[in-house]
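Q: My labmate handed me this sequence with no annotations at all. I'd like to see what the chain might look like in three dimensions before we decide whether it's worth expressing. Could you predict it?
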Amino acid sequence: MKNSIAAVAVLVSLLGGAAQAQVTAAAAMPAATAPAKAATASTDPIVVMRAEQRAARTEFNNTVRPLRAERAATIKAAQDKAGAEAKAAGKDPLVARRNAKAEATAATKADFDAKMKAATEARSAAMAAAAAKRAAAK
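A: Here is what I predict for the chain of 138 residues:
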């Protein structure tokens, strides 16, 4: 039994070392041998459309990430404040945090939706333009 446990431990350590060696070798590979996506730009309309749509989604995500983070920070601050006040008053802080989250979410909804609308419309326009460009290339 002890021999089999030792054998398993040795095999696992050897496999871990081999995997590490492969990762290190792949990382040391020169950039010239790595496939370059930019150098192999396709002329296929579907591939071009998907690349344009991917770029539009990426731009949208980069635009809305700070908006979402700002709203989340505002909501968290309201929750923390309500939880501290409830704890000081001897009430249940979890209930106070839950209620504060609902109130803060409702209070920030209109402003958040207005900011998101511009980003959403820009993304939708870019996606539609990419689809129209593909349709025209048929």
